[in-house]
Design brief:
This protein is of the alpha+beta class. It has eleven helices and eight strands. The chain has three domains: 63 residues, no CATH class; 80 residues, Homing endonucleases (Endonuclease I-creI, Roll); 104 residues, Endonuclease I-creI, CATH 3.10.28.10. Strand 3 and strand 4 form a beta hairpin.
Length: 277
């Protein structure tokens, strides 16, 4: 015990910090501190210890920046599949890819479940789910590694979707219209519309629709793309359509239908109305 006390005092007088003495003696910090508590270090030595600690913290922060603290990592992929195109598409249209992770927002339970199922391919952990406003839900995957991963995949998909197979293009278009689309059907006026604040994405959607012989018009002023005329709406219904179970909100004060009809049912009614004219 006496030898330990003397060892602590000698090291302290040589300018060793508390942690350094603990490491050298391999004894508890409280035991070391008891013997050196009255021996102060010089001002210069204190500054040096603070500098080293700051550098150590900076290096630690640099090493863990952008990495999951829970050691949860997305599963990388190079080969695209239909579920992956759908997942990244939905994150682009009705989702958010941000520093904390990824969030998808929708009223449709069908789409929320679909996105969660697709996410399991690359991130097999359950999301946090909460109601943002009455009837609208968010599913959140909070992991800093997801930001860089999905931002890269979103850029990759937007840059390459025009050169990918028609099956992938169809999936991408359906994700867009499921999230952003609606059917305008009042009296003799019929149209399929899609809204998006990013004009470049609207022009991309227009080019992809053209690959299916569907003509459309982009109105950048109102941030929308519109498909009109019977032949184009008919091709849209045949080639793209909306996913089964995706409905309009019939509880809205300005709802025309006054009930939550499926979007594809409204589209069917719009096409059927041509036969009545």
């Amino acid at each position: 015990m006496v030898h330990f006390k003397i060892r602590c005092i000698e090291l302290r007088k040589k300018g060793f910090s508390l942690n350094e003495i603990v490491k050298k003696t391999k004894r508890p910090k409280t035991s070391v501190y008891f013997h050196i508590r009255h021996i102060s270090l010089s001002k210069k030595r204190k500054q040096e210890i603070r500098r080293v600690a700051a550098e150590r913290f900076a290096n630690y922060s640099k090493n863990i920046k952008g990495k999951s603290r829970l050691n949860r990592h997305p599963i990388p992929f190079n080969k695209w599949g239909v579920p992956l195109v759908s997942l990244v598409g939905h994150l682009i249209f009705d989702g958010e890819i941000k520093h904390e992770g990824c969030v998808y927002t929708n009223r449709s339970q069908v789409l929320l479940k679909h996105v969660a199922a697709c996410m399991q391919i690359v991130y097999p952990y359950l999301p946090q789910k909460y109601e943002s406003i009455p009837g609208v839900f968010k599913i959140g995957y909070y992991n800093v590694e997801l930001e860089s991963f999905f931002k890269q995949k979103a850029r990759e998909l937007l840059e390459n979707i025009q050169n990918m197979g028609k099956g992938f293009q169809r999936t991408f278009l359906r994700a867009f219209f499921d999230d952003e689309g609606s059917v305008y059907f009042i009296r003799k006026r019929r149209a399929v519309r899609g809204y998006q604040h990013n004009a470049k994405i609207l022009m991309l959607i227009k080019r992809l629709l053209k690959n299916f012989s569907i003509k459309s018009n982009v109105d950048e002023k109102y941030n929308e793309i519109m498909i009109t005329r019977k032949e184009n709406i008919l091709r849209f219904a045949k080639e793209i359509n909306f996913s089964k179970g995706v409905r309009v909100n019939g509880n809205r004060s300005n709802s025309i239908w006054r009930k939550s009809l499926e979007k594809r049912e409204i589209l069917r009614r719009a096409l059927a109305s041509y036969l009545k004219n």
